[in-house]
Structure formats: C-alpha cells, structure tokens
Amino acid sequence: MLLGGGVVAALAAAGLLIWPQPVKWSEDAEAASSRLTLEDIPFDGGRAYEYLKTICALGRRPSGSEGMAAQQDLLERHFNTLGGTVHQQWFQIPHPQTAAPVPMMNLIVQWAPERSERILLCCHYDTLPYPMLDKRNPRGEFVGANDGASGVALLMELGNEIGTILERHQRHFGVDFVFFDGEEFIFSEDGRYFLGSEYFSRAYAGGKLPYRGRYRWGVLLDMIGDADLRIPQEGYSVGWPETRPLVNDIWSTARRLGVREFVPRRGPYVRDDHTMLRNLGKIPTCDVIDFDYPPWHTMDDRPDQCSALSLAKVGWVIREWLKAAEGGR
Q: Where does the pLDDT of residue 326 fall: very low under 50, low under 70, confident under 90, or very high at 90 and above?
C-alpha cells in the first residue's frame, strides 16, 4: 500500500496518496477505543498473534526469497491440514534493478469450492525488500509484522473456523482466501506496486483462474495488527458506489459488537491491492486498513508493535460480517 507519516506530503504530491483532511486521533481517542479484552472476544487473537510471530521468525520475505518460500510452505501445510483447496498461481516479473526473472506466486485457498457465488478475503504476504524509510539503516532487515504478517495471521486463524461458519451460518457463498505476492517488491518509492493483485485481477476478468465462480464482495486486510488500532473507512472504498454498501455493513457490524476501533468516518484515500481488484477485476472490494502506523517501512515493524487484542477485534468483526453477508444489493 502507499501511505506514511513523514512522507505523506511527498506521496500526495505524486498522486499516490490523498488525505482529505488531517486525522486527529487524539480528539476522539477514548471514543475510538473499546474496553473489550481478549476474554470478551470469541475470536482467538492470541493464536493469531502466535501465527504472526511464527511468520516474522522466518525473517524477511520479499518476492522470490528463501523467506517467502518458507512462508509459502508454512501456509500450504496449514490450510491443507484444515481442509482448504489450495491453488498456486505462478507468474514472474523482471527484477526492477537487474532485469533477472523473479518468480512470484499468489496463494489461493478455497472453502466450499462447489459454490458459484463467492466472497474474497485477501491480503499481501510479501514484505518490502528493505526498510527504505528507516533513518538508521534503510538497508536493514524488514520483517513486516504489521505490513505483511498481520493479514496473513488473521486469515490463518479464520481458517480454523471457516468450515463451521460456512456450514452453520453462510450457506449462500463460498469463500476464497488469496495471498498476494509482489504488493511492494520495490526498491524506491516510485516502484511498481500491486503485482500479484494485478495478475490475479486480469486472470479473473479473463476467465483464467484455475476455478470458476463470481465474486460478490472482496475484503482486503492490510496493517490490521497495530497495537494502537484505528480503522477509518478508506476513501476509495467508501467513495465507490458499488463498495459503499460493503463498507457500511462491516462498520455496522463493528458498531453492533462494540468494536469502536472501526471509526465510522472517511479516512485517507489509499492506493492498495483493492484498487486492482475493483478497477481491473470488477470485484467490489473494500480496504480494511489502519493508516496511522509510525513504524511503517522501518525496522521497527516487529511483533512488539502489534497485539493479539487488535487481531481479535478485527477478526471478530470480519467473521461476524461474513456470517451474515448477503448478495444482490
């Protein structure tokens, strides 16, 4: 995704990020902080946080790296054990510095694959090659605890429950988890982002996925593990007419559950994987993202900046929305 604290002005000037107005969380910090504890929430944020730490222990995971290969193996074993139908979607791009071919792979996990109407839950699972915004060492190690592992960990935990959800609560839709490669295989801020979601979206639009089905909704999960969680309604997601009902449903679910970290007001416009899914794939997709994260693209984006409670809150909201999701509106 394209966002950031000290570089917001530069990104906005380049047309990569638009802040409609300053966000002053201090003014409503109490209103946007629920008093829920892990014991109050019936979604296992503790186990999700352990998944997050396991992923980060693999080290850096940029596209084509040993760390990425280890993560792919970890996820395939995890979801195969849970009964998911796993597909590998391979493609390659020339390395932006050397032009050497870089193998990339979107990982797709299907649940109830026989159902033609489907919901897409997705995240990126690659990490930035280097922490380019780190003032101490911009060529140091970047493990992407929030920017990379948080969405992966949440879907790993949701995988433990998805069979029961589809059997007892959601009999209309099948669900696909998609992990996008190449979201930020960049070596400078003006690099080419969203490679995996672009490839996936074009394949879906062209009928070239390894399965058939129509996506009614898509939800992108990005940077949702921040211990200081605040999730406004991403600007594009709430602005597009076809995704506004989806945003309203998810934030209404959060309000019903008392998860006040889902702030019901428009936030920044962020270019992220959801723009590819919507613009190229014509999949109505919203971005659930915490924009305000000081460790972004630095070496400090580590597990201690995230929390089990944040993962529990977001996971609970998405799970309860998924149970009641409807189509045709």
A: confident
Q: Is the pLDDT of residue 190 over 90?
A: no
pLDDT at 34: 81
Number of residues that this document lists for the chain: 329
Give the pair of three-digit tokens for residue 176.
Answer: 């696909």
The DSSP secondary-structure symbol of 139 reads T
Domains and CATH numbers, the chain: 32-188+205-324 (3.40.630.10)
Q: What is the pLDDT of residue 29?
A: 45
Tokens representing 203? 């394949």
Q: What is the pLDDT of residue 32?
A: 60
Tokens 């909201």, located at residue:
317
Please state, in angstroms and rounded to a whole number, the distance separating the CA atoms of residues 233 and 279. 19
Count CA atoms closer than 13 A to 239's CA, side-chain side: 11
| pLDDT tens profile 144-160 | 999 999 999 999 999 99
Helices 66-82 and 45-56: crossing angle, nearest 10°? 150
Token pair belonging to 43: 């979604």
Angle at 270 between CA 14 and CA 265, to 5 degrees: 130
Query: Residue 177 has which token pair?
Result: 């988890």
CA 285, 312, 22, 255: dihedral to nearest 10 degrees?
80
Nearest to 327 by CA among 168, 163, 164, 172: 172
Structure tokens at 169: 């609560």
